[in-house]
Amino acid sequence: MNTKSVSKFVLLSLIGVFLFFVPVQNSKVPVVLITDTIKALLGPALGLVVVISCTLLVLGLIGARAFHIKALEQYYSGDPVIKMGFFLASAILVWMVTLNVDLPFIQHPEIGGKILTLASTVFFTIALAGTLVIFIIRSGIVEFVSVLCEPIMRPIFKLPGEAAINMISSFVSSASVGVYFTEQYYTQKAYTTRQACAVVTNFSVISVGYIGVLASIAGIEEMYGVLLIASFVLVLVMGAIMIRIPPLSMIPDTCIDGSAPVVTTRKMSFSERFRLAVEQGAARSEQFTAKAFLQNFLQAMKFAQKTIGVMVPTVMLVLTLVYYTPLFQWIGAPLAPVLGLFGVPDAALAAPSVLIGIVEISLPSILVLGTGACAAAAFFVVQLSIVQIIFFSECGNAILSSKIPLGAGKLVLIFLMRTAIAIPLVALLTNLIY
User: Fold this and answer.
1) 393 occurs within a structural domain
2) Is 289 inside any structural domain?
3) For residue 363, which of 353, 372, 371 has the smallest C-alpha distance?
């Protein structure tokens, strides 16, 4: 092995691990701290970033469609017409919020009052973490971990070792970063279509920091540690189940270009596997260059911009339904007897929170706190919302904005299936704890 390559692999990997996996302040990793610092520095101007981004998204679209500017046509290549409609709607809505248009949903503190803050948080998280993620995807650590984890990941999850990094990255940064990781490996043919769909819908978990936020919102801060451990275990258990049943099991197990995946089964001793892992890590680290860093930065900015372009109108529409109609209360009512059957305390109070998490993951915690449900019911709601994975304010929209072929219909179906599987598991855990 080339000593210089190995040294580069080790150094870049240590930087990547530090940025994404090492808590340095209040259980936050450096990437999250940098994002929070940028947001704090921008202060009141934070929402302006969203307004500018969505406006430029539409102006660029006009340049591509009306004036056929080649660079802009390439920027929007592959975007379906419906997504372009979302881009236009996002610009209109953020300007309506900025100009404080006198419409109920714009004036509502939980809809128009929060959309710019929510969108800016998602934008900076994706942009910063997506830029720095090169210290993970080009350092060689993914190849190192994938070789070591391959004997475990393939038989249990039918996934390559890279999936281990996907799950860890989501836990320590955000669900959107996990989706971004997956898209990168999917386009590089490290994942097949089925594997990419399985990873984003099973391992795009919210960060450990945000799990603490949900616990605080629901008034069960003392259960933070339990929620962390339980989330990790339940995500693994549910992942092993979901990959084996439709709709994921019915998705083509081919690469993005339709070619058959190259699957290598390597049986070797641990020392041989470790040496191979280091060799592959060192080889990959040679692809870390200044040019690659710049390209990764541009890709991250593009992904962040398009994600909030889809996110803004989607979240505002659904939140309007949440706060102005009894739709989710009607949907939740039939679930009360089901929750009661599994012994969930205060089942009637917890039921409306079961499905609303598909909109925004903090809504179940907010609702269950407002109902005055007991601590056990609050724990059930928070834990369930974490393992449901799919929520359209971030993870769902990141998936829709990616090249991974999962439409809104399939995401809703997977959300419902995860909910059905998770309810008895989380109910059992709740009754064991309380």
Assistant:
1) no
2) yes
3) 353
Phi, psi of 123 (to 5 degrees): -60, -50
For 396-425, how does the pLDDT look when each residue is reduced to its tens digit (9 = 90+)? 989 998 999 999 999 999 999 999 999 999
φ and ψ at 25, to 5 degrees? -155, 125
Residue 221 has pLDDT above 80, yes or no: no
Cα gap 432→430, rounded to integer Å: 5
- The three-point CA angle 85-86-90 to 5° equals 120
Single out the residue of 260, 217, 175 nearest to residue 373, CA to CA.
217
At residue 264, the pLDDT reads 61
**117 HSE (CA, 13 A, CB side):** 10
Q: How many domains does the chain have?
A: 1
Task: Output the six-digit token pair for 178.
Answer: 């996990």
Q: What are 308-347's pLDDT values in tens digits?
A: 998 899 888 888 888 898 887 788 889 999 999 999 999 9
Q: Would you state the structure tokens that stand for residue 89, as one six-digit string?
A: 């709607």
Question: For the chain, how many helices (H) and strands (E)?
Answer: 23, 0
Which domain, by its residues, includes 265?
A: 3-207+251-299
**pTM given for the model:** 0.73
Instruction: Enumerate the β-bridge partners of residue 25.
Output: 28
Which tokens hold the place of 82? Answer: 């419906």
Measured CA to CA in angstroms, residue 297 lies from 17, 174, 185, 212 at distances of 19, 17, 16, 29
Q: Distance of alpha carbon 252 from its chain centroid, rounded? A: 23
Answer whether residue 374 is part of any domain. Answer: no
CA separation, residue 309 to residues 154, 200, 251 (Å): 36, 20, 27
For residue 372, is it left (φ>0), alpha (ψ between -120 and 50) or beta?
left
E strand segments, 283-399: none
Is 170 a domain residue?
yes
- Interatomic CA distance for residues 341 and 348, integer angstroms: 12
Residues in contact with 288: Cβ distance below 8 Å, sequence separation at least 6, in sequence order: 8, 12, 134, 135, 138, 139
Q: Is 162 exposed, middle or buried (0-12, 13-18, 19+ CB in 10 A)?
A: buried
